[in-house]
Amino acid sequence: MSDFGRPPDSPDFEPSIPADPFGAPAGRAAVLCGVGGWVPPRVVTNEELASRLDTTDEWITTRTGIQRRHAVEPGQATSDLAVEAGRRALRSAGGPAPDTVLLATTTPDRPCPATAPLIATRLGLREAAAFDVSAVCTGLIYALATAAGLIATGVSRRVLVIGADVYSSIVDPDDRTNAIIFGDGAGAVVLRAGNPDEPGALDHFDLGSDGASEELIMVAAGGSRQWAESRPPTRGEQHFAMRGKEVYRHAVTRIAASARATLAAAGWKPGDVDYFVPHQANVRILHSVADDLGIERSRCASHLVDVGNTGAASIPLALAHAHTEGALKPGHRVVLTGFGGGLTWGSCVLRWPDIGQGEDPR
Ligand code: UT7
Asked: What atom of ligand 1 comes closest to residue 217's alpha carbon?
């Protein structure tokens, strides 16, 4: 008889899966050993947006901190950005080819199939396990946690984790609230099997969600819910919609709480943190969270000034940028925290490894 449907606390419950199904050696950690990022060359400045939308450079800069973002050219899709970022991360890591590719994205090339297998093939990673992870702007943290689990159980030995999004494909270009925030981009890291006490080991994941707030960030059309409602979608339902003010309030609370939980689990005090990389949503959110946690603003990544909110790409892009600029040094204590639609949130920590010089994502 299957164990499905039987509560785990029933007296005759015996899990059908042994506690350690893969015989994984204890202490096998996912260790970051490569990083890379790529943004499409076309820059969209605040002035350019102000020339066609009812907005100003001053409004965008003071309300978001964003000065410019990058946008795809016609013909470029998420996998094109992801392949570039993945290639750079693989170059940075060197060593054997990954056996697994995960793509965190909200804008896959197509609703079906997943985009990760195509990326793996284009990178020459033939027959690698490959799938997409959908957790909106927290996608990268969820994908890292998934990769860490695959490595810990011995299913995977080396994983390429990519966060890539082309928000241009879902944001209404005439929506002044969202068009000014989002940019297109991709970032990637390579994880290998290693020991929990070595630099680069990811640890102390904190993950969470709140589906009661799903309507705060949404593309309403295009899924089975719209099909079930048996009516054609409106123009608005086909585009990305966000209740910005409410999301803002959740973001400051959730990012701080998740980062705090991870710090507590790691036994780190805020003053121990050398580099804090929250999801790059809005510089006011970043500063407010840093202040709340007691982390100096100068230690908080703010790559969004140049690239905007790049969704699932924002954390690895910020890492690639900071690594190239020399802001991240071997041994630095780093906290990663994501927040996004779902709602979802998540954090983890690592000590920055010695992975040599990176390439500028631009
Ligand atoms: O990545 C997923 C997570 N996302 C986030 O964390 C985003 C969180 N939210 C935000 O970053 C901010 O809420 C926004 C940047 C989206 C908006 O900033 P805000 O300070 O919350 O502005 P608001 O929505 O309260 O709007 C204030 C005013 C409104 O006008 P009224 O009603 O006061 O007359 C808006 O219509 O600003 C207006 N407005 C604009 N004005 C000029 C909205 N967008 C613009 C614009 N230019 N682009």
From this structure: 2
Catalytic residue numbers read: 137, 279, 309
Burial 260-289 (b: 16+ CB within 10 A, else e): bbbbeebeeebeebbbbbbbbbbbebbebb
Residue pLDDT, tens place only, 60-70: 999 999 999 99
Residues 123, 225, single domain; the answer is: no
pLDDT tens digit sequence for 288-310:
999 999 999 999 999 999 999 99
Q: Is the CB of 287 under 6 A from ligand 1?
A: no
Q: In CATH, what number is assigned to the domain containing residue 135?
A: 3.40.47.10
Of the three residues 150, 166, 194, the one that is the final residue of a domain is 194
Return the residue whose CA atom lies nearest to atom 18 of ligand 1: 63
* pLDDT for res 120: 98
Is residue 342 within 6 Å of ligand 1 at its C-beta?
A: no
